[in-house]
Specification:
Low-confidence stretches: 1-45, 465-472, 495-499, 509-530, 541-558
Distance between the termini: 22 Å
Number of helices: 13
Shape: elongated
Strand order of the largest sheet: 1-25-24-23-32-31-30-29-28
Structural class: alpha/beta
CATH architecture of the largest domain: Alpha-Beta Barrel
CATH superfamily of the largest domain: Metal-dependent hydrolases
Mean pLDDT: 81
Largest sheet: 9 strands, antiparallel
Helix content: 10-25%
Amino acid sequence: MRILPLLVLGFWVIALCASTAQMPALQPPSPLQTPGPTTTATYPAVSAIAELILTNANILTMDETHPLAQALALRGDSILAVGTNLEIIKYQGKDTVLVDLQGKTVVPGFIDSHQYRIQKRLAVGIPDAGTIIQAAIRQGWTTLDELYVDQALLDQLRELDQLGTLRVRINAYLPFMQYDADGTPLGNWYKAYHQGQLISPHVRVAGLIGFADFDNATILLWKQPDLNAFLLKSQQEGWSTALKTVSTHSLEMILDAYEYVKTVDPKVVDSRGRLEHALFITADQIVRIKQLGLIPVINLNNPGQLVGEAEVDALIAREPKGSYTPLRSLEEAGIRVAEGTGWPSYYVEEPKGAPFGSPMHLIYQAITRVGNLGTQPYPWLLDQTLTAEQALRAMTINSAYAAFEEKSKGSLESGKVADLVILSDNPLSVSPEQINNIQVLVTMIGGRVEWCAPDGTALCNGAMTDPTAARDRFTGDWVAIDPSDSSNMTLRVIHNADIYNVVLVDEQASICGLDTTGKPKYAAELDATGTANGNALSTTVTLVKCLSQPPTFIDRNFTVDYTLQSTADELVDSIQGAVWKRQ
């Protein structure tokens, strides 16, 4: 025999992105583990085979037990497994699509916990719902908590879903009162639905929405006994309630009401009451929020975008000192802070960097508190900034928790929905200014690519939606007869985007050494680099270890060329002329 019974090759072929030339050079992954010298190439015994595997990624999982990962396997609309390259490659089957992300960053799909994109799109001159939905997806949003969804809007959302236009997930919060000076009740119309009800594939009833104050907290909309009674009843019915509050006075009423509920009915279900906006919170109120398990839903673009607003400055003047958007204090108290943009409130067209209300712009604003169009914050506001990681958690796992969805989304873990975003850089390792320039390359919702940047990855070319598109001309299993001893040989070629992994097994493999021509024979492990050009697959290999005992180490280069025949069903190697047929 003149070629190797057990061969592991790794070589770079083409760039994953058109923009790869701008990326730093990356090291190829560790070679795949190979079967023993007398085994045949088989697929791993795992519970399920992945349809798609992303490798060589910088995965920020938002899973506290495993915050970082290298690879991720998907099947259908769910995440199959997350781990290292070697751990995840076990889930590969013959039709699995492999994509090498070359160090790009992967994060969970972003969740906007407080916004009005669809219902208020006309405010920014966009009449078409599909246009506003696509704009959100391009920014990396995969779930939108749509506040104030009345029956008409609920019907519209259901229709958009039926038409295939609603490609983003919607958490609908149903109003039980109007936002006016009287807090006009809307009756019990919402009781036709129930907490967590799936209205259509992308529309879910997530809770109720009401208001504690009006006109920048100059009007309180409740008397304490009425608010106590309403929250007690709604929690007993299983509802999660979101209440808007922009002052410490209205927040005090809400906290008193939840304490009343806890005292009157200790067995009442955990509602994860939401404090929408929560502009002002005192230190004492932070302690009570923690004790009650409530969730502040705070706009990360505040307070920067509110600098210079006369009404807000008047609020700051009359509210307790130090109570304005104390984000860092909330985090230090161990409170889960969810993120909301309030979109389209204070909407502007940012002239550079990430768009208004986009996740990258929000992280930048949470760190710097810079407002719209670069408006600088009051210096004292910098005492309550967040880190990039805290901001990232606020718009992923924390926002999922706020909607009782942390078991299905918000982090990249096995069994959760395949909602994820691929970024051009890592927001946790670059400067705030660079964060604001990070691009969303891919947005995936339920395992389906819903957005690819024009200069994005191979995913943009159909690789993730059509598995056959990612399989190049060499990928697959090949079998041949060894011309020297008539033994059976198996060759498995795996195209991992920028890497080919080739495993060759010969049933007669038993020794290690060199043949008379100086070519290696019966090798165990090799390093390789190479190129693919048309029908030719060419590798230059350095033998580094043999199977003999003790191992013999040599340093000898040789070339193996594989030529694809015109039928695309046969390979011929240059060393011994074996004809490999596709299995």
